[in-house]
């Protein structure tokens, strides 16, 4: 059994991890870390301490009405992408521990195209 890093849990919710193959499990947000535990295999888990979180990137569509997925970029180990049942609740819970200046929107489809064409000079 895996030992949790958190001493106090703020939110536990069903989620999907997009690290390689999609894995279903639960996200646990607490006072020490962001944690994801797989439902089927207890050996597959992700624990990200709040000190290691660099940015939280949210994919926002329809002017904030729908957030299909969000990513956590760490200082050392790269980016982890997740989706959950209620992403706004998750992002509000994360905002308690991560500086709001480090929570950003991802680029939209047309922004990516615009950036690709303006840099081709």
TrEMBL record:
A Pfam cross-reference name: DUF956
Domain of life the protein comes from: Bacteria
InterPro entries the UniProt entry points to: DUF956
Protein name per its UniProtKB record: ManO family protein
Origin species: Enterococcus casseliflavus EC20
């Amino acid at each position: 059994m895996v030992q949790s890093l958190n001493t106090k849990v703020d939110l536990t919710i069903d989620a999907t991890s997009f690290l390689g193959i999609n894995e279903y499990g639960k996200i646990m947000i607490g006072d020490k870390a962001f944690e994801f535990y797989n439902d089927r295999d207890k050996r597959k888990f992700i624990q990200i301490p709040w000190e290691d979180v660099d940015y939280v990137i949210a994919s926002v569509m329809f002017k904030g009405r729908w957030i299909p997925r969000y990513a956590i970029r760490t200082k050392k180990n790269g980016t982890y992408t997740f989706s959950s049942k209620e992403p706004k609740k998750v992002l509000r819970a994360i905002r308690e521990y991560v500086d709001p200046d480090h929570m950003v929107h991802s680029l939209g489809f047309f922004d990516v195209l615009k950036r690709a064409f303006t840099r081709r000079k």
